[in-house]
Design a protein that fits this description.
Blueprint: H1 6-11, E1 17-20, H2 35-47, E2 52-58, H3 59-62, H4 73-84, E3 88-94, H5 112-120, E4 125-127, E5 133-138, H6 153-167, H7 169-173, E6 177-182, H8 214-226, H9 260-287, E7 294-299, H10 312-317, H11 329-336, E8 341-344, H12 362-375, E9 380-383, H13 391-401, E10 418-421, H14 431-444, H15 473-477, H16 496-502
Parallel strand pairs: 1-2, 1-10, 2-3, 3-6, 6-7, 7-8, 8-9, 9-10
Antiparallel strand pairs: 4-5
The protein binds ligand LGUOYLEQ.
Ligand LGUOYLEQ binds at residues 20, 23, 56, 92, 94, 96, 98, 101-104, 187-189, 202-203, 298, 300-301, 345-346, 383, 385-387, 422.
């Protein structure tokens, strides 16, 4: 869209700010617990010129009573309040458990009737090499297995999203909901649960592959046989959660990951994740066809061991990313089919804040992932990974939001679509923290007044069209070719007194 005036041109730089709501705002009993308290907080957010909020729509709460028995009442109350307070909404289809990840303050398991299937068939859950199951999210190995009263996992997700659309039709029509974040794994992210704190992982352990359930094992065997290598097995030399790369045969210098067998495994492991995303996004697209909103997926910021040749932690998470192989542009290319937004986390982190031994590179990782998505022509949104209230973190977010600063003549070449701040709490609303946060919101808005239609000056949201035809895997894998990331300026339109700190 060509801006008609200077003001319009500046509004094309306006990055809307959303705030994540507390994880248990609707509690495990499906009750909107403290409406008065939340309304007060939403008013404070609105007064701070915040554009909207993000909320988990927990599968484990809504469909807890039994298959297809969705109960939306509490969420309708919540959505109505968000609407009344003049905020927009990003709704996460949370097909995962809450509990077990950093910051998980409440426990919300996936529905009991789904977990009951696991009593007789524990292989529906991701499993590590030593056989430990992870009940956070169904293994993608059962995506197409009719194990749930005759339905497959993909059908369960699809029916839930259709029910959401039916029951929230008025809010969708009123354009309260700007995007649907489609849950694709633990913490709602497209990844394997390779670094579960409840199983003893601690930062910066390399994590473990999670493909030893019977479905994924059988799938791998078949893939290896078809490739002419029936003797190839799943890795048995990749170490344990808290190992360092060099302690394992798989990730050490000249390790298994560089052999033909290692490459075959890693390609299979990461391709399964791409296919998983594609299938569920296709169902999401069908569920929300015609709605004026966008689909989005979350990709985790696995920044530890990024500066190690092996990129071990990314590999165990399912991001097959090495110096000579881009493991994120493939995800972005997959998303082009659904015109979906790639929502990336850890945008607040600086390399200098990370422990030396973690060989961590959050700044380079963010630059790589954002550049990959922009090169594929899709939109990018961002989140911070850990709670922060300081200007240093806000400045890094500002730089990543518009890596070359504000363009006074129209949309900047590089900009994110929206930023979601983690998370609403009493601490955020303490007067000093709130004052800093308000300044941050203003900066994200390119110093413009609050504008509920800012999207119109960047990429207006059109009624959702049907996904494009499937992209052959060979075409997606062409995007593994590494490209130079776009240059990010060290200092952009940040808080001036802190800008020098981040350079
Ligand atoms: O509602 C939407 C979803 O929300 C939640 O998922 C989000 C998740 O919360 C986010 O973190 C993010 O997920 C990813 C993230 O992108 C990845 O980068 C990664 O996070 C790792 C992180 O990058 C690593 O640096 C490391 O973090 C360790 C950290 O470096 C250590 O300093 C320490 O953190 C302390 C922290 O310093 C301290 O202040 C305190 O903070 C907690 C606070 O006390 C408490 O009151 C509460 O407010 O929570 C605070 C946590 O911020 O304690 C921290 C923990 O001890 O340890 C860190 C952990 O060792 O490791 C991180 C991985 O553990 O992985 C994340 C998860 O995949 O985006 C998610 C999606 O939006 C929910 O989990 C979902 O269910 C919701 O759907």
């Amino acid at each position: 869209m060509v801006p008609a005036s200077t003001n319009d041109a500046l509004l094309a730089n306006y990055v809307p700010v959303f705030v994540m709501l507390p994880l248990g705002v609707v509690n495990a009993e499906n009750v909107f617990e403290d409406p008065d308290g939340l309304r007060e907080q939403l008013k404070q957010l609105r007064a701070a010129d915040v554009d909207g909020v993000m909320v988990d729509v927990w599968w484990g709460i809504i469909e807890s009573k039994g298959p297809k028995s969705c109960e939306w009442g509490a969420y309708r109350e919540l959505f109505k309040m968000v609407q009344e307070e003049g905020l927009k909404l990003q709704a996460i289809m949370s097909f995962h458990q809450c509990g077990g990840n950093v910051g998980d303050a409440v426990y919300i398991p996936i529905p009991q009737w789904v977990r009951d299937v696991a009593a007789a068939n524990p292989d529906i859950f991701y499993t590590n090499r030593s056989g430990t199951r992870n009940p956070e999210y169904l293994s993608l190995g059962v995506d197409n297995e009719p194990l749930f009263g005759g339905r497959t996992a993909v059908e369960l997700y699809s029916d839930f999203m259709k029910s959401f659309r039916e029951n929230m039709a008025d809010f969708l029509h009123a354009r309260l909901i700007t995007d649907i974040e489609v849950g694709l794994g633990p913490a709602g992210e497209l990844r394997y649960p390779s670094y579960p704190q409840v199983q003893g992982w601690s930062f910066p352990g390399i994590g473990e592959f999670q493909c030893y359930d019977k479905y994924l094992t059988a799938d791998f065997r078949q893939a290896a046989a078809e490739a002419g290598h029936p003797e190839w097995k799943l890795p048995d030399d990749a170490g344990e959660y808290n190992d360092t790369p060099e302690k394992t045969k798989f990730f050490a210098e000249s390790g298994t990951y560089l052999t033909e067998r290692g490459k075959f495994f890693l390609t299979w492991y990461s391709n399964k994740l791409l296919k998983h995303a594609d299938q569920i996004l296709d169902r999401a697209n069908q569920a929300f066809l015609g709605c004026k909103l966008k689909l989005a997926i979350k990709v985790s910021g696995v920044h530890w061991w990024y500066k190690d040749d092996s990129h071990a932690a990314e590999l165990t998470a399912g991001y097959y990313n090495l110096t000579l192989r881009d493991g994120y542009r493939t995800i972005a290319r997959q998303l082009t089919r659904h015109d979906a937004i790639l929502n990336f986390t850890c945008v607040e982190m600086r390399d200098s804040e990370q422990p030396e031994e973690a060989k961590s590179g959050p700044e380079e990782l963010v630059q790589q992932v954002l550049s990959a998505a922009w090169r594929e022509g899709i939109e990018v949104a961002c989140e911070n990974a850990l709670n922060r209230y300081d200007t240093a973190a806000y400045n890094v977010m500002l730089r990543n939001a518009r890596p070359n600063g504000i363009n006074p003549n129209g949309p900047p070449k590089l900009r994110i679509s929206a930023l979601t701040y983690l998370r609403l709490s009493d601490v955020l609303l303490e007067s000093e923290n709130l004052a800093t946060f308000k300044l941050f919101v203003k900066k994200m808005h390119a110093d413009q007044d609050y504008c509920p239609d800012s999207q119109n000056f960047f990429k207006p949201i059109r009624p959702m069209k049907r996904s494009k035809p499937e992209i052959p895997m060979e075409k997606i894998l062409e995007a593994t070719e590494p490209l130079e990331p776009y240059p990010f300026d060290p200092v952009t339109d940040m808080f001036s007194d802190e800008a020098s700190e981040t350079s």
